Amino acid sequence: MASAQDYVPGEVIVKLKDQPGAQSNFMGKASSQKSMNLKKSFSRLNMYHYKLSKGQSVPQMVQELKNDPNVEYAEPNYIIEKQSSEIHGDVLSFSDIQELAKSEGKLESSTVEMGLEQARQSMSATSVKPIIAVIDTGLDIDHPVFVQSKAVWSNSGEIPGNGIDDDGNGFVDDVNGWNFVANSGVMFDDDDHGTHVAGTILSVVVDIFDFPVEESPFKIMPLKFLDSSGIGSTSDAISAIEYALANGATILNNSWGGPSYSVSLHEAVAVSYSSGASFIAAAGNLASNNDSAPMYPASFDVPNVVSIAATTGSDSLASFSNYGFNTVHVGSPGVYVLSTVDGGGFGYMSGTSMATPYVAGIAGMIKHEQSSMLGYQMKEIIEDTADAVSPLSGKVQTESRVNASAALAAAQGANVDGSQPGYDVNSGYRGSASAEQTAGGCGLVSKMAYDRYNNNGRGGKGGGNSILKNGKEMHVKDVKQNTLFFKLFAFALLGLPMLMAMFMKRNIAPSERRRHERFEISSQVSMKVGDKQLVGSVSSISLGGLKVDTDAMLEQGGIIRMSIESPDGNEKVEVAGKVVWSQERQSYGVAFEEANSKVLNTISGWTSGLKKAAG
Question: For helices 404-412 and 375-384, what crossing angle results, to 10°?
């Protein structure tokens, strides 16, 4: 039976309203009246992480907190996981690697098409060393690859081992990063995942299989928030993001995720955008469509987020990889990737976790060449220079696989503007760049188009007609398409509030508000509402919720726990839901509140053979 609880038991995250007295009013009540214990505060976000008392229900407390006049929102502390498989086969020693190199030739053959070797050779000799935060399971900082390459970030303001917070940043002896699981500066990887990810990032710029390994042109900041099972929480992920940004990281690698939307995590990612950082995220390993079943943080619409699918050596979508033409941006190699593991060895892993660090490494190359480039500008270059490959058609937004060499060349030839559009979690973009910036792609000038539509649509060097627009060279096709796009975008942006207001004023039927495809179903459901055990039937279902028919009265806005039978009665899922609408004859619409990936996959399997519901 699939479990619905994908949050940390007994913990909530609360954001207070930005109004006088909110903090003092709430903090006193939280402790004295609600028996909640403060675990951590995120002062920059006006957000607080609380531990509930024994026996307190997370869903009930969240609902109670939402009704507090001082609270902007409250939510569970969701669980998130790494996005990769375990090591394939045995761990290889350096001598094993040497033998492989002799017998198989170049070990990086699976990524040759990405142009890694050409990109390395064309990198400049600048002393700029961007910091890439690996928010993961930790890092074996004593691995010969990281020691010889001098790749591990070092906190110059901290004196090792003296038990003092020398730089006053709130972390004692955070010499190379921080371990949010053990709450210490002792950096270790008890899962292999973070070490493998970090080695993959490093492999973009140096040959990690050729000892002694060359010095790295960027630094890797290990931040451990996933435990030995590859599992972590929203609160620790936010802590790691905050630490990374506060300590100079401009590229954040996130090879983890989960299906539960978290507004607190969304806000933390939005802060990374406003800070100018790049946020690279794994699309997920459920072989599902993120357009209909999102994976977070990869599915956040923040402009600096790059969502990565995994591809095979033949540029096909990996069998396990999530996809989504509207929400997954680009493909990257993620099958049988050979990289560093704990204890000084090497191992093969597969997953969007492995595809993501290649892109983070490319972003590191770009930042090395253009230190003032912002995260969302790096995203544009990575996407615009990717190679179109037919197996990704309709699967990812660019229909392409990344190309390191082309991305680097575009970055080297770009003039960078330091401004960027505003963004708000609740309403998306809240501002726009000037017309001049917009013509070049919002914040980048000449060369940003990079002949996007030549050479089969991506990254080519071909000619084509070009003109000057606002002093910038752009291809005619680019100008026409950009102008049309931004006219449509401006129209949609200006008209959206009015349309939404009209929409909200109407009494619209539930079927017209649905985000997920709905299917007819005939099955039973048992419901627990407080201490009452109720029964009913399910007449339609989607990945977002279901329609329940019952003689019992259900309260609008109430939270219920449900055990739903499959159409054949051989399987059940348990999930919590919120009553969002009701009709006569006791029919209720219930939106899933905490449906994890197992629940959604099970329901998706049920609906594959069902008839689509009308309306």
Answer: 130
